[in-house]
From TrEMBL:
Topology with respect to the bilayer: Multi-pass membrane protein
Protein name: TonB-dependent receptor
Signal peptide location: 1-24
Pfam family, one: TonB_dep_Rec_b-barrel
Organism lineage string: Bacteria, Pseudomonadati, Pseudomonadota, Alphaproteobacteria, Sphingomonadales
Gene3D superfamilies the record matches: TonB-dependent receptor, beta-barrel domain
Swiss-Prot/TrEMBL keywords: Cell outer membrane, Membrane, Receptor, Signal, TonB box, Transmembrane, Transmembrane beta strand, Transport
Origin: domain of life: Bacteria
Compartments where located: Cell outer membrane
Positions of the TonB-dependent receptor-like beta-barrel domain: 242-670
Primary location group: membrane
InterPro entries the record matches: Beta-barrel_TonB, Beta-barrel_TonB_sf, TonB-dep_rcpt-like
Species per Swiss-Prot/TrEMBL record: Alteraurantiacibacter lauratis
Length: 711
């Protein structure tokens, strides 16, 4: 339950995050952005969602009133509002972004441009876990294909930028801040957070902080009992100084996630204690010569169990300790301007992971399921942004060398002989791998007054994860697939190679925009769980014996298969009579294997979103419909079940109380519709109103309110 005594007083003065795309931004206290050397966000290449810009409702007699659809949502759900997006629901704080049918490590996730590996073997802390929506200012989503300069990425990329103090415009010290708070009845949750800072035109310093707390959410007069409560704190400091024609910058953040439910998993979060550190320099070495160098470290310390929030029988109690450290370094040099340049760069990433499974009732039972697993990657790229008459283009080439290795697992005296035999076999194996991958991207477009046709051709790759290669112990660890299956790794895996083609057009005339895109991805050596051997269900191998002891007689092994995904997505907006705005998205993707008569796992069905709002003087109100078709094209290999279609209606309104104070409120799921999103995880908690093995439903009808203050 949300602690009112602790947070109510603060919430009255705090501003609520604005989780929706915005077309207008309040510049009353705008400071010079700290990342002045970063490439301009071109709408052809990047979808930008402004989240907590604390935008007030400006005069509504302009051609484009503020695109402002406040809804209570986590950062993944906000990113999923982009065309082609979807939210994989694995718990209140563990959602992943699905983009055009792919998710997990195939979608590059970053916070403030920093890459890092998750701490848990089941990705209970995917990248957006560390970006509370109340502190996110901007979400940047690569349209279709991420440029090679962003690093390796098979499906796309999303970057969450947290609120930050920028440079001031004058010599004197200027104070600025953003404060926020909200309450949501569906899960009796609250959040407070914000930023305060001081700056001149030569230096800047700021602090950020947030706290979120919620109970199990309700649906259709029922509750996800004991499964979805959550608690998370984040605080940090950032600073910058203009030095040698550029900016010297640094930031530190601490994330502390306390007990939080993950009903699709066998275990829940007990804690994530994670430290982020990043710093560097960016600036101009000479006219039209820009340099950026930076380095960072992310340290994750994690505990998960099935004891804190659940009540298993003693023999099934488990606690798993995990740690992950990511070290990164980047350097890039750009010759030219933001729209006409050649850039070269190099980056380094080193990740160390360790996972130990224990029995809290028996100190002699412990298993190192991921023993000192290490991965090192060094890469380089060249990327050009050029023009050829009426034709604009961006092309890039990237090469990466990745090496991976695993240590020797240690097992306690109480561990039975089955796992011991598998450990010995793993110790005797190579426990190392090396891959060289090549990525190439070419994006072309022809700007026009009304229509801008565009074309993308790309070759993108993904190296198998250390889990997919070195998971010697059959467990449910699967980087968040959350399907109840038990998986085992495969050291013979090859990198995935995706051949991608996209074509579309951006239409814009007056207050109307429409941006459809058709895409095709042929993926060679796609990595998916497949039956361990040719006799599934027949326990005739040590792996199947151990898997059967863990509750699954039909384990899956990660193997290379062949796949393809194709589809169509679009977004649109229209301004009518200067005061009415319509906007929406539609997404369809078909994913299937090419080597077998089966579908890819967890591919979203056809979906659409439509919103309408009316703008008045200092206020607006509207409604939104989110609809999804049934999904019958499911993966038999993964035991995926079909899902039904649904449509959910939300209401929202906003009132500007003062130039810098905004009050938002709304009703979600107005008609209290029971629905189960296809991408939602399957429930594993017995003491719940949702049967074990069923998809988690969406939240029922509830009200929410938030207020915002910017100074």
């Amino acid at each position: 339950m949300f602690n009112y005594r602790t947070c109510a007083a603060s919430a009255l003065a705090f501003a609520f995050a604005l989780p929706a795309p915005l077309l207008a931004q309040d510049h009353a206290h705008a400071l010079e952005p700290s990342g002045a050397q970063e490439p301009a966000r071109d709408p052809i290449l990047t979808d930008v969602i402004l989240v907590t810009a604390a935008t007030r409702v400006e005069a509504v007699d302009t051609a484009e009133p503020p695109h402002h659809i406040p809804l209570p949502a986590d950062t993944v759900s906000l990113a999923a509002r982009a065309a082609g997006g979807g939210a994989v629901g694995n718990g209140a704080l563990s959602g992943q972004l699905s983009y055009r049918g792919l998710f997990g490590e195939r979608v590059l996730g970053r916070v403030n441009g920093q890459r890092f590996v998750t701490g848990g073997p089941n990705a209970m802390d995917p990248p957006m876990h560390y970006a509370p929506s109340i502190l996110v200012e901007v979400l940047e989503i690569a349209r279709g294909v991420a440029p090679v300069s962003q690093g390796p990425s098979l499906a796309g990329a999303v970057n969450a930028r947290l609120v930050e103090t920028g440079f001031a415009s004058g010599d004197s010290v200027e104070a600025s801040g953003y404060l926020a708070g909200q309450y949501r009845s569906a899960d009796d949750s609250g959040a407070v957070g914000g930023r305060v800072g001081l700056a001149t035109k030569y230096w800047r310093i700021g602090v950020i902080a947030s706290r979120e707390e919620g109970d199990d959410y309700r649906f259709a007069d029922s509750r996800i009992a004991g499964g979805t409560l959550f608690e998370r704190n984040l605080y940090g400091v950032h600073a910058g100084a203009k030095v040698a024609g550029g900016e010297l910058f640094a930031e530190y953040r601490r994330n502390e996630t306390d007990p939080s439910g993950n009903p699709p998993f066998a275990l829940d979060i007990v804690y994530f204690d994670t430290d982020f550190l990043q710093g560097g320099w960016r600036g101009d070495l000479a006219p039209q010569v820009a340099l950026e160098i930076k380095a960072g470290h992310v340290a994750v310390r994690h505990l998960m169990d099935n004891v804190t929030l659940r009540r298993p029988i003693p023999a099934q109690q488990r606690s798993t300790f995990a740690s992950a450290d990511t070290f990164t370094a980047d350097a890039r040099l750009r010759f030219g301007t933001a729209t006409r340049h050649i850039a070269i760069g190099a980056d380094l990433e080193e990740a160390d992971r360790f996972v130990r499974i224990t029995d809290p009732t028996n100190a002699n039972f412990f298993i190192d399921s991921q023993p000192d697993v290490e991965a090192q990657r060094i890469g380089g790229f060249v990327e050009a942004r050029l023009g050829f008459g009426a034709l604009e283009g961006e092309a890039g080439l990237r090469i990466d060398r990745t090496t991976q290795n695993a240590g020797v697992p240690t097992l306690g005296a109480a561990v039975p002989m089955g796992p011991r035999g598998l450990a010995n076999a793993f110790i005797a194996s190579a426990r190392e791998a090396a891959d060289t991958t090549l990525d190439a991207v070419m994006r072309l477009w022809m700007p026009g007054d009304v229509a801008t046709p565009r074309l993308t051709l790309a070759r993108k790759t993904r190296v198998p994860s250390v889990l997919e290669r070195f998971a010697w112990l059959p467990t449910e660890a699967s980087y968040g697939l959350a399907d109840g299956n038990i998986y085992v790794g495969n050291q013979a895996l090859k990198p995935e190679i995706a051949w991608i083609a996209e074509a579309g057009v951006d239409l814009e005339s007056g207050g109307f925009t429409f941006r459809p895109t058709a895409f095709f991805r042929r993926v060679d050596d796609y990595i998916q769980g497949t039956p361990f051997d040719d006799t599934p269900g027949v326990i005739n191998s040590p792996v199947e014996m151990v898997s059967n002891m863990n509750g699954d007689a039909t384990p899956l092994m990660f193997r290379n298969v062949d796949a393809e995904l194709y589809g169509l997505d679009a977004d649109f907006s229209a301004v009518l009579a200067g005061r009415i705005m319509l906007e929406g998205t539609a997404s369809y993707v078909r994913g299937k294997r090419r080597d077998a008569a089966d579908n890819l796992y967890r591919v979203p069905p056809l979906s659409a979103r439509l919103a309408a709002m009316w703008h008045g003087e200092g206020w607006f109100a509207g409604a939104e419909v989110n609809a999804s078709a049934a999904q019958g094209k499911v993966s038999a290999t993964n035991g995926e079940t079909r899902s039904g279609g649904y449509a959910v209606v939300n209401l929202f309104a906003s009132l500007t109380l003062a130039p810098e104070i905004v009050l938002d409120a709304g009703i979600e799921n107005l008609f209290d519709r029971f629905y189960q999103p296809h991408l939602a995880g399957l429930n594993r908690v017995g003491a719940s109103d949702v049967p074990v093995g069923q998809r988690l439903p969406g939240a029922g009808r509830g009200v929410w309110v938030r207020t915002s203050l910017r100074f």
